[in-house]
Design brief:
Elements: H1 6-16, E1 23-29, H2 35-48, E2 54-60, H3 65-70, E3 78-82, E4 88-94, H4 102-112, H5 121-128, E5 134-140, H6 147-160, E6 164-170, H7 175-181, E7 188-191, E8 195-198, H8 203-212
Parallel strand pairs: 1-2, 4-6, 5-6
Antiparallel strand pairs: 1-3, 3-4, 5-7, 7-8
Helix pairs in contact: 4-6
């Protein structure tokens, strides 16, 4: 069953015309797809069908376990983005980016294609000095209107520095992570397991957490 009606497909298609370069999307799912995996597959297939600048690959989480491990993918469904040359951009969506979160997905897709404003000189300078691996996890709910901004900021940093990986995590799908990180509301951002940010925070606040973590 289709996720998008004709009106929404037209709106998304118009947005995707803004892509500067091709983007490669990879979905990790499994042979017997869970409900969330099935919805995520339908989502990326319908999005990819709306632009010839999107290249979609579906991979099996179990059969392609070594590839998943190399990319740090530890749960499904997982949606990743790479640039036209296949360079992993550190962008991860764990769960279906539906509801309000489609805004972050489409924004990130456009930015991943190379169409994005440069960071401020101060932020660029701080990123240039990064010498450690960073993982940013942004816990969201599709019904949260403030969550897309938090995800977009995290993904933006991942695109700017190869040592940063940023995850959107649908809180409802991974209760063990909610318990581990004591997430009581969304958006809730965890940087390198130790630094916590509540609410949608600007890039500068994420950089503060990165430097402390």
């Amino acid at each position: 069953m289709a996720l998008f009606n004709d009106k929404v497909r037209t709106q998304i298609s118009d947005i995707l015309k803004g892509m500067a370069q091709p983007v490669r999307i990879t979905l990790f799912t499994q042979e017997f797809e869970c409900h969330a995996c099935l919805d995520a597959r339908t989502f990326v297939e319908e999005i990819a069908a709306l632009s010839n600048r999107i290249e979609l690959t579906i991979r099996d989480f179990q059969k392609d376990a070594s590839a998943a491990a190399d990319l740090g993918v530890d749960k499904i469904p997982a949606i990743l983005m790479a640039d036209a040359d296949g360079r992993d951009l550190g962008i991860r969506y764990y769960g279906l980016p539906g509801g309000y979160e489609i805004n972050s997905f489409l924004t990130t897709l456009i930015e991943a294609s190379g169409k994005r404003e440069p960071l401020s000189p101060q932020a660029s300078s701080r990123l240039a000095g990064l010498e450690k691996d960073v993982r940013i996890q942004v816990f969201i709910s599709p019904t949260c209107p403030y969550c897309p901004a938090a995800v977009i900021a995290a993904h933006r940093l991942a695109m700017e520095h190869q040592r940063i990986v940023a995850d959107m995590v649908d809180a409802a799908l991974y209760p063990h992570l909610i318990q581990r990180y004591n997430v009581s509301g969304v958006p809730h951002t965890v940087v390198n397991e130790t630094q916590h940010l509540v609410g949608a925070q600007p890039v500068e606040k994420l950089l503060d957490a990165i430097e402390k973590g």
